[in-house]
UniProtKB/TrEMBL annotation:
InterPro entries: Leu-rich_rpt, Leu-rich_rpt_typical-subtyp, LRR_dom_sf, LRRNT, SLRP. Gene3D superfamilies: Ribonuclease Inhibitor. It is found in: Secreted, Extracellular space, Extracellular matrix. SMART domains: LRR_BAC, LRR_TYP, LRRNT. Its main location: secreted. Keywords: Disulfide bond, Extracellular matrix, Glycoprotein, Leucine-rich repeat, Repeat, Secreted, Signal. Residues 13-47 form the LRRNT domain. Belongs to the small leucine-rich proteoglycan (SLRP) family. SLRP class IV subfamily. One of its GO terms (cellular component) is extracellular space. This is Chondroadherin like.
Amino acid sequence: VGLNLLFSMFLPNCPESCDCKTELQHSTCEGKNLRKIPKGFPEDTKLLDLRRNDFFYVPKNAFSTMRNVVSLHLQKCQISELEPSAFNGMKKLVYLYLSENELSTINPTALQGIPQLTYLYLDRNKFSVFPMGAFKLVPNLFSLHLQYNSIAHLPDNSLEQAKKLRCLYLTGNHLSFMAPNSLAAADDLEKLFLDDNQLNEVPTQALGSSPILDELRLSGNPIRWVGTGAFLPMANSLRHLYLNRMGLEKLSSSAFSGLGRGIKSLYLENNQLENLPSLTNFTGLEIINLADNPLHCDWTLDTCSLESCFTNHNKMGWDRHSEGRNDKHS
């Protein structure tokens, strides 16, 4: 008994049914059918994995002793509520995974006490309204994941409290409208994923608030026509543009006005395009995908440094004057 007691004094703290790897500073209770968030993890834990349990909510100060956790996993825990100060005390938390839960709102005070939070995963929850007031207490938020919710519109000043946001993922929502100032205040936004929504036009006015946008994805929206200067607000910064799978029928002759040498990749596959506007200004283009369009045009790109060109399943001719291209066409 004495030896067992002495040995137990040197064992790390670890809740029952959990596994704590002190050498890795990882603790996990994944898939243990727990109904309450356990206590008693090693204080030096940096990764805490509690996914696939049945917590239903996160109570106040649930992690108050977990000061060194950098990454917290709470996916698939049927969580529908975060109480105020739910994560209070997690001063080093950078990654918070709340994917595949039942959240429809977030009380702003729920994120109190985690000032270093940088990556927030809220994908596959129950949001029908953008949680625009939730980010006041996380000023360093860099990447926000809200894919596959039911958000229908983005109101003005949606990102007013997320001024340092660089990446916004809204894939697979029900977005049909973006207010003109919906992206205002987030001047550093670089990546915007709007694919597989219900937008019927390029939200040009809203995009005017994103002067350094690098990547824009509009794939899978029911946009049939792209008008003049649709991408002009981010003409100096845009490098990657996705317009595939939209049923797109026509591009204005000035649809890409302002875009030029900065564009590196352009995706237009799986549309209904019969003609293309001039792309001669796209002198930095490396990848273009035009596959599965009823194109009948003769197309010349003399000055591009293309690495890949996909033009299969159409009836277009391509006049190429540069050598060393890795092209795939028919």
